[in-house]
TrEMBL record:
Residues 112-135 have a biased composition (Basic and acidic residues). It comes from the Bacteria. Residues 1-23 form the signal peptide. This is LTXXQ motif family protein. Residues 112-141 are annotated as: Disordered. Keywords: Signal.
């Protein structure tokens, strides 16, 4: 192919991909009511604030564990958990409980039709994620 044709094809493919992503976002936005969208945004804000509070509570030793490239994710997590203070453990548990409450609150706000739409939208993503995890495990072994 000529370089010009290749560039045009590349740009065209890029725009199709962008428009598909935007269409999916619009579908999700139109699936949810304004109140549900507000609830999700509030939940995201709380989770973000909780994450920041936890990060701020980490000691220099704990930050060094997270930055250690010689450890894989599981080893980092195990090492970090072993060094957590009681206050940090309490903070993590409270954050988990809040997240559970938020999920339940959001689930109860959904109608049957909304659940079906969200399920069908997320079904492909879940399958892709499972395949990624399987591939990582195969590469690791």
């Amino acid at each position: 192919m000529k370089p010009t044709t290749t560039k045009i094809l590349l740009v065209f493919t890029f725009f199709i991909g962008v428009s598909t992503v935007q269409a999916q976002e619009k579908d999700r936005a139109t699936t949810l009511t304004i109140e549900q969208q507000r609830l999700l945004q509030e939940q995201r804000d709380v989770v973000k604030a909780n994450r920041e509070a936890f990060k701020a509570s980490l000691t220099a030793e704990q930050l060094a564990i997270l930055k250690d490239k010689s450890l894989n994710k599981e080893q980092q997590q195990a090492a970090l958990i072993a060094t957590l203070t009681e206050t940090q453990r309490t903070l993590l548990n409270e954050n988990r409980e809040k997240a559970k409450v938020f999920r339940e609150e959001f689930k109860t706000s959904l109608t049957k039709e909304q659940r079906q739409q969200l399920h069908s939208q997320n079904e492909g993503k879940i399958r892709e994620k499972v395949n990624e995890i399987k591939e990582r495990r195969i590469r690791r072994n």
